[in-house]
Amino acid sequence: MRLAALTGLGLAMALCGGAAAAAVLTDLELGEPVRAARHAPLVLDAVTDTSNGELITPDELARRLAGVQILFVGEEHTDLDAHRVQARVIEALHRAGRRVLIGLEMFPTTQQEVLDRWRAGWFTEDGFVKLSDWYESWGYPWAYYREIFLFAHDHRLELRGVNVPREVVATVRARGFDALTAAQRRLLPEGIDTGDAGFRTLFRASFESGDALHARLSPEQLEGMLRAQATWDAAMGWNAAQAVQATKDPNAIIVVLIGTGHVSYGLGAARQLRGRFAGRVSSLIPVAVRDPEGREVPQVRASYADFVWGIPEQKAPELPWLGVSLAGRLGTSPTKIIQVSEGSPAARAGLAVGDILLALDAEKIDSFGRLRELTAACRWGDVARVRLERDGKPLELEVAFRR
Asked: Scanning 37, 277, 319, 387, which has the fewest C-beta atoms within 10 Å of its C-beta?
């Protein structure tokens, strides 16, 4: 699942908790102390109110969110069931008569115009994907999010980009906050906190799944990634608060769709909002009811989120993926492979770290975004020809997209 490590998205994905780490990350003694001391039940297709362990319906969830102005809903980016949960929450709140805004991790505030135009009906679906630079700025297949965007379009719900441009986070990660320009500083709240002990514990726990790529990072690089995570948390919480406050509508709620690592235990975006926002904030996380080995997960730590929604375990990526991480803007070649995921189509085809991808089925690959776009057009069962360069010599391999 860590498709974009070291290209601006890797830390967010790591802290979302890949499948191997999921069971551990749901049962840490972190967050609000009273809840952290107990557990709450997890049931497939049910919503659990972790304050009292009750199983409730989506409509009851909407009622219990009365007065909440910001709802952070976590996601594993490549889990279709998690996105279905997000869609159901948005639908329930809309049905309950709330003014629903949707906050989007995948868009920085600087791209707000394209979201406004989508809502206004200026674009076809394909036009929006292309003109929003979806596969360059985010990269996960549009199909994972399609239902949410179409519902927002059809019901004229307000969409808000809540992230910051990638170069802002890259600067913080590599050189620290003092390296930001004045213009970049204006995109962030003051006083971003990186020192909270619980936040740091969660950060360390996210790497216990044996991620080989991140295991090679130095302490200085890991500290930079921690700064990056805190920057994302603070920016997205702050921008969500500004968006809902700007409505001046007490009936408004912004549902913020962000990686689970920014939501869990209230140590991410919600923590960074303390002292900046006086309104009520809540959280919901979809959680798989079985771990990657098929063992039942009957409960989670009650402090993990205010509400959890039980979903099926993800046995394989829902949509085709190649299974490589590329050097991106940080490398000398934007298509040089820096990681090949074990068991992926790329690994089975023989792609290796250091290979430079040149083309997929004769379509030129000149960026990670272009590779994502081409892969998104594939279906399980397809076979593609990959042209690459290895040790300065051309090579062509056949990749079968099979789970």
From this structure: 37
